[in-house]
Amino acid sequence: MPMTTITRSSPLPIRRKTCLIAFSHPTTLVAALLLPLASASLAQTLPAAGVAVGPQYDTTHVYIAPADLDAFVNSFVATFGGKPSKRSVANVLPVTSSTQMQYLLTPVGALSIFAYQTPIPFPFGQERTGYLVTDMDQAIKAARAAGAEVVVEPFKDAIGMDAVIEWPGGLKMQIYWHFTPSTNTNPPLETVPENRVYVSRDEADNFVASFVRFANGKVVSDDPHADAAEIGQARETYRRIEIRSLFGNMLVLVTDGHLPYPFGYEITGYRVPDLGATLDKAKAAGVKILFAPYPAQDRTTAIVEFPGGYIAEIHSSPAH
Q: Which residues, at least 6 apart from 157, have a Cβ–Cβ distance to it below 8 Å?
């Protein structure tokens, strides 16, 4: 599934991630068929893949009200570019349900978008992202060995298998696998999005150790005194951990939980070459700026809300 975002005014859950809003498992699977294989250059710069396939197969799950679907998709494309798939209606869960679903591939990341026409069965909508794996049985075994809980055991959809796992600290994500590997060659991502994970101090080390083991990832930075003004806590510090793997980028934000709105609701961060120009396009498309651009150590960052309630972080690197 893709990411989810939660708006306080909407009756539907919109939360993680990525951006974010959640998507059903089969949708992510169908979407992944459209994505290219991981590039050789990426494979050379990342740790061994394990069960990962590549970040262009990872989607943020976005759950949104049917009435907001057009406005959301149009505003996201206007902001970042990209092309949406054809929309369809199906049951993509192991229990009875019905959703409109659409896949959106952009230069900065992919979304699996779900607009349910029925109540959303538990615990779907809580998973923030969908990761394609090379083998479902191996992935489940690896997740459990790394300390994850399988909260939705593997089930079939039209083209493969899906499951939902939960990590120490409460992060839920979907993993999915295709019966027939994709051979399509869509353009690779221009920038790899960032899975933004807020965890408590109690579970931070457990979460990082578990996920890094599962993903064959690497901690590339761990700053115990990062500037917390970038998450709305002026004159404070927090622990900021960056992880890289063939699943993509992850930013772990270890906080005391005293977060002003909207921090914690954004599940995906998107890197763009020019933040100001991107925000201008976003505002013209009806996107709200919830947190104005702030110059942090390695980026200028902003938080936005798309029509329908999907909340995301957008950033650009400082000019040199």
A: 25, 26, 29, 92
